[in-house]
Design goal:
Layout (H helix, E strand, L loop, with lengths): L5 E6 L6 H7 L3 H8 L3 E7 L2 E10 L4 E9 L8 H15 L4 E7 L3 H7 L4 E6 L2 H4 L6 E2 L2 E2 L3 E7 L4
Parallel strand pairs: 4-5
Antiparallel strand pairs: 1-2, 2-3, 3-4, 5-9, 6-9, 7-8
This protein binds coenzyme A.
Length: 156
């Protein structure tokens, strides 16, 4: 496991590792657009950036996880889970009531989020067809609809 040697820190949008963010969201236009209004967190292994996560406050109570990505060479070593747990705590500490995320309707990412307590609450039909110029495939299946997941924080 990489847990004990990764360090997570917040950086400015201008320092965001675009190569990593584009792996999770292939639209450079979308990424640049939400980065401007978001917080960006990175996971570092010594001096190398191996993971990144972008969270956008969309209202006082609701923040949205816009992007989370780990360098393929380091995936499945716990870095993604560490990063997700870190931003959940940071969002809670920022006094938001909930953290939302949109993801595809299939794939391991669904378990990745639900393991940390996210629940499905709605579906946006045709989201990936309407919002992306190029078709997106995962495991040979075209992504079409988006599931919206939410993690609600208990009031202190
Ligand atoms: C999603 C992502 C950030 C997870 O990061 P990670 O560092 O690989 O995740 P972790 O090592 O913490 O693994 C968490 C769980 O996800 C599973 N997982 C991660 N990648 C997987 C893969 N490619 N296939 C199957 N399961 C996978 C792990 O096996 C682990 O489950 P386990 O503990 O039961 O074994 C990373 O895989 C990634 O960058 N994917 C591409 C971009 C993306 O899809 N982002 C999310 C957009 S919604």
């Amino acid at each position: 496991m990489a847990d004990h040697i990764t360090k997570i820190e917040e950086i400015t949008a201008s320092e965001a590792p675009m190569d990593l963010l584009l792996q999770a969201d292939p639209s450079i236009k979308n990424v640049k657009n939400y980065l401007r209004q978001s917080k960006c967190f990175i996971a570092k292994l010594e001096d190398q950036i191996v993971g990144a996560c972008v969270v956008k406050p969309i209202s006082k109570n609701t923040h949205e996880l816009m992007n989370i990505s780990v360098d393929p060479k380091y995936q499945k070593t716990g870095i993604g889970r560490n990063l997700l747990q870190y931003v959940i705590i940071a969002t809670r500490e920022a006094k938001a009531r909930r953290l939302e995320v949109g993801t595809g309707t299939f794939g391991y990412q669904l378990a990745f989020y639900q393991r940390e307590g996210f629940r499905v609450y709605s579906i946006e039909k045709n989201f990936f067809l309407v919002n992306y110029e190029e078709p997106i495939y995962e495991d040979g299946i075209q992504l079409k609809d988006m599931l919206r997941l939410m993690l609600e924080f208990e009031r202190d």
